[in-house]
Design goal:
Blueprint: H1 8-11, E1 19-20, H2 26-37, E2 48-54, H3 58-67, H4 70-76, E3 81-88, H5 101-118, E4 122-126, H6 131-137, E5 144-155, H7 163-166, H8 178-181
Antiparallel strand pairs: 1-5, 2-3, 3-5, 4-5
Helix pairs in contact: 2-5
This protein binds flavin mononucleotide.
């Protein structure tokens, strides 16, 4: 396989638990959201929305941390920013359910993460948070669903974490091989 053809920013992205609370410049955060906005989406509906807070905004930051599962809060509290990703689950042009809203939002986040990586900004997404608490806090209507939360920051040295948690950063997470995920013509015929 020509692994070397894969873009460095894609290959080098990973989700650390060791964050440094050092501030990320606002223009970098903005560039990440702008990159997200360039993603394709079904009917160009752009169903994603992002709400974020930063460590300096103590009340909101602590509120956001409070939505997380304890296992995430323990490391995410060291991040500089926390983003809540939302999806509008109905098409704006006709109000019908948009079954691609999470897919599209994921694509926007993928763009965001590539942009972040290119600026040496790290991101760690989370499913482990209370959807209900976010819905209540942001006063979301039924048509807007929380999708993920994302901790954003610079890579830390891990001194703010227990060795047990820091261990998670020791190894990169393995990837499935091509023959498990890509097929030619039928699912019984791995393509590579
Ligand atoms: C939708 C989604 C939910 C995730 N939820 C969590 C989570 O709650 N806690 C966590 O530590 N990591 C979470 N992750 C991070 C994944 O575990 C991580 O992306 C995966 O293991 C691959 O590792 P990498 O991002 O370092 O390449 C989540 C990632 C995604 C995309």
């Amino acid at each position: 396989m020509r692994e070397e053809l894969i873009l460095e920013v894609i290959k080098e992205r990973w989700s650390p638990v060791a964050f440094s609370p050092a501030p990320i410049e606002e223009y970098k955060l903005k560039a990440m959201f702008q990159a997200a906005s360039h993603a394709p989406s079904c009917n160009n509906d752009q169903p994603w929305m992002f709400v974020y807070t930063t460590a300096g905004e103590t009340d909101s930051f602590n509120d956001y941390l409070g939505f997380m599962a304890e296992g995430n809060r323990i490391w995410a509290q060291n991040a500089y920013a926390i983003i809540i990703c939302l999806a509008r689950t109905k098409f704006s042009f006709n109000g019908n359910p948009n079954r691609f809203s999470f897919y599209d939002t994921g694509m926007a986040v993928a763009n965001m993460l590539v942009q972040a990586q290119s600026m040496d900004v790290f991101a760690h997404q989370m499913a482990g948070f209370s959807v209900q608490k976010v819905k209540e806090y942001l006063k979301l209507t039924d048509e807007i669903e929380p999708v993920t939360m994302i901790a954003i920051g610079s890579l830390g040295d891990g001194s703010n974490l227990s060795p047990e948690i820091l261990k998670r950063d020791e190894k990169r997470r393995p990837r499935k091989s091509m023959n498990e995920i890509v097929f030619r013509n039928t699912l019984s015929n791995p393509a590579f």
